[in-house]
Every structure is written in structure tokens, then in C-alpha cells.
Amino acid sequence: MKTSPVITVLMPVYDCAAYVESAVRSVLDQTFTDFEFLIIDDGSTDDTRKKILRFNDERIKIFPREREGLVSQLNFGLKQARGEFIARTDGDDIMVPHRLRTQLQYLKSHHEVGVVGSSFIMIDDMGNRMGIERYPETDEGIRNAFPVYNPIPHPSVMYRRSLVMSVNGYRDEFFPVEDLDLWLRLSRSTTFSNIDDPLMLKRVGKNSVTALHQKETKAVHLLLGRQYLNDEMKFVRTKDEQFQLELKMARCEYYYGMPTMSRSLFVSLLRRRPYNLVVLRYLLSSALSENAKNKIRSSRLLNALKKTKILRSRKYQI
Q: What's the CA angle centered on 162, arms 10 and 89, to 5 degrees?
């Protein structure tokens, strides 16, 4: 009887015929080979399934499904998986050849870590490279980012299946930030990490999930942020911890909510700490029009500072 594979590669797909062959090939070309490859077809209407069937590899298992959406297919895949570790990827992204080996070695040598992601190379719809997106590497850095932004890119992660199943997987009501919701629920039971090695080529074109669901992303992210921070307030021990959580709430309102609400929160914070430069910067930024912000974003000075790493784009986003 064949033993279970060490890793399950989980790839939900929907109408990605233009990219799926290169995505599948990048999985099959991994230097680590003890894996099963579950491809969950979410009711594709193009040639996605036809192109996948061209591959003759016993590790591939295709599940043709009715159109139910990403979250439903992810949970279905988790139930079918036999691997101890789950490696996520999407049908329009590309793994570098050593991705599975690198993340598996990391999780086996860091038993306290339940979820590990990585930086990635951004590519456009034509496959042209656009730069590297980096994320906090340490558990502390990742937690400091919660829930203002998602510090663990979902298509890059490998996690322990038992850990995710212990919280019943993904929740559909938090699509399209179902991954951030999962990390926040896991935050009390595990440690996180990111590897500062671009293990993925991630497509960031106009047809990505993020681009297609911008309005929904903002609304759900704000709801999730409010819930998480209100829960965190119950465990506050010091005034500084309370201030930092309230600052995160103000930043969530700034990025995903209403400008008037964020300004009110920043004013309240500034009254308590008049010389806090972070609060002051956000307060000034919240008073600017979108046109003024766009001019600043495209300014030569700001771009020059980013290139010299004086400003980090995520920490000092305008």
C-alpha cells in the first residue's frame, strides 16, 4: 500500500487557460518530488481543464466541480488532501523549482511555525517581471502588520494541514480576504514566518482576484479588522498596547473605511501623543484629496526615497 505523500499541492483554478500550463509545469518540475497535486476546477468555461489533461503525471488529481467559488473549493481540497503539509498555489502563478523543498525544510526545522510564506516576483499578464514584493520575515513583524494588511501572501504559503483543519479551514463570508481571516484565527495557536527568497512568480495583472474585487476587499477587510482589534483589546495590559491597537484601528479606517472616521481617530490619538510622527503623518494624509495623494505617489522624491529604502512602501503607504 502506497504511503501518503509528504506534501499536498492545492491549486483551485477557474478560467485560466492562458496561464495554467506554465503553472502546472512549475509544480511538476519541483526538486522535491514526494507530493500529490490536487487541481480543483471551479466550473471553468474555457479550455483550462483540457490543457491540464495534457499532462501525464500520476501525482495530478483533477476534480471537476460545479462553480462554487474559491473558498468552497479550497475547503474541498483540504478534505481530499493526504499530505501533512499543504502548499498553496494559483493557476496563473509559477513556482520556482526549489520552492517545496525550501519551505518543507523550514517547517521541519522550525516546529513552532505553522504557516510559512515567502516573498515573490511580480509579473504582468505577459510574464514580464515587475520587481520583488517582500514581507515581514519574523513572527513579530507579521503580527505587527495584522490586520492593517495581509503580511503572508496566500499563493506562496505552506502550512500544516492539521493546524488549519483544527479551525475548520476557510470561511466563505470573508472572501476575498479569506486568507487573512485564517491567519488571524490561527494567531493564538501558532507562529508565522516568511522566507526572504522569492519562491513564486505571482501575476498581478488586471484580472487578478484582488483587482477584480477591490470594493469587496475593502469592505470585508474593514469588518475583519474591526472584529480582530476589538477582540485584541480584551487582552491589553498597558497603555502603550492600547495606543498601538487604536492606531491600527485608525489605519484600517484610513485604508478601507471612511476618511472622516479615520481623521477623527487620528486626532484623538494625537491629543494623547502630540509628537507622534506616525499619527501626524496619517492625519495629514487623511486630509489630502485623492488627486493630491496621486501626485505625491508619483513624485520623483518619493520614488527616490523608496529606492534607497528610506521609505518602505508598505509601512509608509500614502
A: 20
The share of the chain scoring above pLDDT 90, in percent, equals 81
pLDDT per residue as tens digits for the range 271-316? 999 999 999 989 988 887 666 666 666 666 556 655 554 434 443 3
Cα–Cα distances (Å) from 45 to 14, 19, 119, 126, in that order, read: 8, 15, 32, 22
Q: Are 85 and 36 in contact, with CB atoms under 8 Å apart?
A: no
Closest CA to 130 of 194, 202, 196: 202
Spatial separation of the C-alpha atoms in residues 172 and 174, rounded to whole Å: 5
Separation between Cα atoms, residue 87 and residue 155, nearest integer Å: 8
Please give the radius of gyration of the chain, using alpha carbons only, rounded to the nearest integer: 21
- Whole-number pLDDT of residue 26: 98
6: part of which helix (H) or strand (E)? none
Which residue do the cell numbers 474559491 mark? 70
Three-point CA angle 150, 17, 31, nearest 5°: 65
Q: Per residue in 30-88, pLDDT tens?
A: 999 999 999 999 999 999 999 999 999 999 999 999 999 999 999 999 999 999 999 99
User: pTM of the entire structure?
Assistant: 0.89
Q: Return d(Cα 187, Cα 231) in angstroms, integer.
A: 12
User: Phi and psi (nearest 5°) for 151?
Assistant: -90, 5
Q: Which of 4, 76, 15 is nearest to 48 (CA)?
A: 15
Q: Is the pLDDT of residue 96 over 70?
A: yes
Residue 302: its pLDDT value, please? 58
In angstroms, the CA 124 to CA 99 distance is: 21
3-state secondary structure of 275: coil
In angstroms, the CA 90 to CA 156 distance is 9
Nearest-angstrom CA–CA distance, 277 and 312: 16
Domains and CATH numbers, the chain: 7-207 (3.90.550.10), 214-307 (no CATH)
